Amino acid sequence: MQDLGISVLFRGVNFQRLLGGLWVTLRLALITIGLSCLFGLLFGLLMLSKKKIAKVFCRVWLEIVRFMPQLVLLYLVYFGFARLFGWDLDGETSAVIVFTFWGTAEMGDLIRGALTSIPLHQTESAAAIGLTKGQVYLYVLIPQTLRRLLPQAINLSTRIIKTTALVKMINVTEVLKVGQQIIGQFYRQPDAAFWVYFVIFLLYFLVCWPFSLLAKQLEKRWA
Amino acid sequence: MSDTILRVNDIYKSFDGTGVLRGVSLEIREGEVVVIVGPSGCGKSTLLRCINGLETIDRGEIWLQDEKISGQVKELHVIRQKIGMVFQSYDLFPHMKVMDNLLLGPTKALGRHRQEVEQEALQMLERVGLKEKAYVYPRTLSGGQKQRVALVRAMLMHPEILLLDEITAALDPEMVSEVLNVVIDLARGGMTMAIVTHEMRFAEAVADRVLFLEEGVVLEEGTPEKFFHAPATERAQRFLQSFTYASKRDQAAAKPQGEPL
Lengths: 223, 261
Ligand SMILES: Nc1ncnc2c1ncn2[C@@H]1O[C@H](COP(=O)(O)OP(=O)(O)OP(=O)(O)O)[C@@H](O)[C@H]1O
Ligand SMILES: [Mg+2]
Hints:
Chain A has 8 helices and no strands. Chain A is mainly alpha-helical.
């Protein structure tokens, strides 16, 4: 065969298969990010609660998430829970659980940070011009919190998108897995691997780059 | 008296068991400017914060005209619409342009129309020399400009009384007078004010009456002439002396006046 390896991508439905895999990646990431925002808000508020036990609980959770490799958590849930509790979780559900467990803690910590970064005198001077409590939140506190939060939340989101690549280890056929299948089929074509991975690299780049641009833009605008 | 705007009646306030205000009374009539001075930590800020309900009081009463501020008032924000307050720290809202800072209170708290207030805001900005800054973000302003905007923001609510808590304390010295001149202008215009300041020359210039607070009690009260030139208590004399410096050349040159810190 004299073809360049890149041609394997245009044989049959290979490119569509890759895009299908990318969609699995994105779907997983989007569900995770959505749930992480939702639970992260609760987590952040819990971190700010005056109850010591709530704070300790959050701290421990956050530490676990930070020092435990995501892959270990994935194996733990996917293989461990199945054996231990007899749960038959499919790969994607396990992944959503693990990544949400992680995202919730990280997002919660960002939300806590953003909330506490607004100085008290902002609240007081807003109250001093006669706004109600609700108006103080609506016009003064929430907009400032979002401005601090959004760039960081976007960065976290791109990290989540990247990390979803791990789920191929628990038998989810996402973009990387599809790539490996294609390479497997064309093992006679030695440079196929390079081109397939290169295209996957481009796909990730195309998905994450706009996010990171947006984050930079927002950071500059709201600095 | 019918023209009394604010009446503070024997109020007490403590933090963690330490009495910060211990029986303070104060009456301010319409158009009157009362300056409150005293050593650091004597309770000046706390007094102003109690007046607009940022702190609750333990005992006593505070009345704004015929409305009681102290105690469990549900509609605190309605009373605050009638009390303007400017603080030491710059507290413009950083995510809003100057004009939006100015319009927030009048449009959201008072429900006035944007166009109408915007015209008024522009006129007021012009009076304080900041008309060209109407549509910039606060971070592009100097400290002195920020405090002038904060004064305009408070005045646009048409308050019955204005409370100023060391509004020039965080400013570079060369910006102090541009802000204090605005305050003197407001005083001339008949604005009722309670002012806390460490600028003694300004205090003397603007005050109708001076209140000397120490350790949470009013030690002395009187006209600026009397307070600054013939203070009655030894404490007040010592306080005023802390604003003067003995000359390097003249050992006996400590008079109770001179350069403010
Ligand atoms: N929220 C608070 N909690 C505990 N103590 C407080 C609080 N606010 C004020 N205090 C204490 O009350 C006392 C009076 O404080 P206040 O801020 O009223 O003084 P001040 O006269 O304004 O002083 P300065 O000239 O330094 O501004 C101080 O000892 C201060 O530490
Ligand atoms: Mg003070």
